[in-house]
Structures are given as C-alpha cells and as structure tokens.
Amino acid sequence: MAWSIQDGFHPKELTPGDAIRYYVFPCFLVLVCTPGSLFLLWFGQGKDRPAPDASVFLGSSFAWTVVAVTLAWAYAFLRIPSAKCHGPTTYFGQTPEYQANGVLYFWASLIAFVFCCALWPDLPVSIYEEMPYIMGSLNSFALLFCVLLLVRGKYWPQSKERIGKFPLIYEYYRGMELHPRIFGVDIKQLIICRFGMIAWELLNLTYLFAGLRLHSYNAGFLVSVLLQSIYLAKFFWWEAGYFDTLDIIYDRAGFYLCYGCLVFVPSIYAFSSYYFVAHPPLVSDVTAWVVFGLGIAFVLLNYKVDYEKQVFKNTGGKCEIWGKPARYLEVEYSTTSGVKRSKLLTSGFWGMSRHFNYVFELLAAYSWAVVGIHYGAWPFLYSTILTILLVQRIFRDEEKCSKKYGKYWDQYCKRVPYRLIPGVF
Questions:
Q1: How far is CA 264 from CA 200, 268, 336, in A?
Q2: Measured between alpha carbons, how far is 169 from 255 in angstroms, rounded to an integer?
Q3: How many angstroms separate the first and last alpha carbons of the chain?
Q4: Domain boundaries, the chain
Q5: 3-class secondary-structure state, position 210
Q6: pLDDT digit string (tens) for 358-396?
Q7: What is the pTM of this model?
Q8: Which of 162, 240, 323, 366 is least surrounded, with the fewest CB atoms within 10 Å of its CB?
C-alpha cells in the first residue's frame, strides 16, 4: 500500500511489500551505496592499485578542498543577480523560484577549469588519483547533509505542507520538504543542477586530460567525453524545463535526490570516462566517429522530445507539432485551493508513448559507453543503472499521475497506450 504524504504511515496495516518499501529498501541503499561508490573508484583505476583503507572515508585535505571549492563555486552562481524562473505551484501554495543562468554557469565553469589546468598541468592527474578520497569526502558530507535536511524538515519546515509520519529511515531516504532553501538558494537547484551535473562535466574533462597525460590521444575516449559534454550542455540550456520534471515536482530533498547527486553522479554517471583512463577504448577512429554521429542524433532527438512538451506548455496547447495542431486531453484535478484544469499532450513524440523522452536518453547513454565494449559490462554501468532508474521512475510517475488525475489518467492511457517503447512496453 502507498500511503498518502498527508495521512502518513500506519504500521498496523503493514504488508510485506510495505516492509520492503519503507524499511528494507532505504536501509539497503544507505548501507550499500557508501562502500559501493568507493569500491567502484578503486576498481576503475585497475586491479594493480592497492586497496583503500578505512581512512578513505575521511577524505584528505586535497579532497575536501576540491569539494569545498566546487560547492562554493556552485553557490556563488546562484547568488549572482540574474533572471529568475519559477516551477509549478504546489498543492499547498508554494511556488519555487530558481536562478535562470544555467548556460552562463556551464561555460564559465568549463573556462575556469581549463584555465586552472593550464596553470597546474598536473591537476587532472591529481584529481583522478585522489578520486577515492574525494568520494570519501562527498560520502561524509552527503550523509550529514541529508541528516540536517531531515531534522530541519521535521522540526522547522519552511512550507505550510501537512506531512504525516513515516518510518524514520524512510523519511531520511525520501526527504521531508519539496522545495527547501538554504542561505537564500533552492537546495535542489544547488545540489542537482549546480553541483551534481557540473561535477559530471568537469570530471569527464579531468579524466580526458588525465588520459592524455598518462597515455596518449584516443578517439573513442574523446568521442565518449564529447557526447557527454553535449548532453550536459543541452541540460543547462534546458534547465528551466527541468524544473517541471518529476525530480523537482514530486521528489523531496533527501537521501534519494541529494545523496544521489552528491555521490552517485560523480561516481557512477562519470564512471565510463573514469574507467577509460586505465582502460583506453580499443575501437578504431572510424568506428568512434560513427558512434559520435549516432550519439549526436540521440542527444538532439532527446532535446526535441522535451522541447515539444515545453512549447506545448508555454503556449497553452495553441501550437503545431509535426505540422499539425497539437492534440491533447483536457483534465481536471483537485488541490487545497480548488479544482484546477490542465492539458495532457497526446501528439508528436508524446503520442507514441507516455515517456518517449526516455528512449533517446537511454540511447544517448549507451552511445557514449559503447566505445568501451571490448571491456565487457563495466563501461555500461551508468547506462544499465539509468535503465533501471528510468523504468522505476515510469511506474512512480504513473502512480502519482493516476492519483492526481483519476479517471482522466485512464482516458489518457487509452489514447497513449504504451509507457516507453511503442508496441513493446
């Protein structure tokens, strides 16, 4: 049973599925993710590297400096005067505000990092070799940060939302508040967009530069990093649209989101590039650039799918998609302030499946890993985990939409019958 966030948790009605969802699964992730992320980074540097000892969990002075500088840089760009954008108003009346300077932040970060590498040529190799300790620092910071989010959300919430009680480990895992702020900035934008996503990009460049210094030019490695960089540049270009996604609208600031972006993104999302430093791709130059062409197509198509929905939203449905007037289903849903009306898009890519944007996102992820196919499954770690996460997200999204829209969601599913892959799933 999935209890509502307002009514909370009722232990007397606990089923085996509830025990897994509210106790076992959160405990498993908290206990496994910390050592798992450190093992991956040790393993990725090659089997001849000595195993890290317990001190790795404490980090090092260099590791804490890297973490602190990155966080300070991210925070600074959220305090720079710039245009604002807003996310959807919640059912309890909160309208989150964000800084709309993502493109500036992305390019400024790249230029600043390249400048630092020019000043200190050994910096990429130093970061690469210190990554287990950097990950130890991030683990320590993320675990404590999520505790602070839990305590503040339970005892000093910033919103008027009424939240029922759930098991403490589940509240830690899920988070308490939808849009908490700290020192004048939105926590989700700070941790997800301005730390996690830029860390992914800068680590990719770090590993590419480290590979060049330790080995030599490798077309497969370069193609993999270029594809990821283009994908991430697209993310910052589209950042305002991201604030309308499930991560922002429904997921709370807790272990799942914040630990994920502080630890999982730097360790797992950038793992293929990290792995390629010690295991350079073996594909030919021609094959690598063919993969690049396909990857570019997948990234652009992923953006095209998201852009269709963004245009549809911004025009209130008064637009053309694929040369024809947009088709949609008019729906109603209830909030604390009354009945609201909305539109669900049913044409273009969004008429092919309810989550067709994930198709090209997955294809893009597999494209920048496939250059390392000679090494088996390890280069595909991120794309495999992403597949699992997105399928799980589909079911979570549809559960929430079914509760929100009721009979209208059933009508929508009849118009767009497939969840992800037309004709298959």
A1: 10, 5, 36
A2: 10
A3: 24
A4: 1-281, 284-425
A5: helix
A6: 999 999 999 999 999 999 999 999 999 999 999 999 998
A7: 0.92
A8: 323
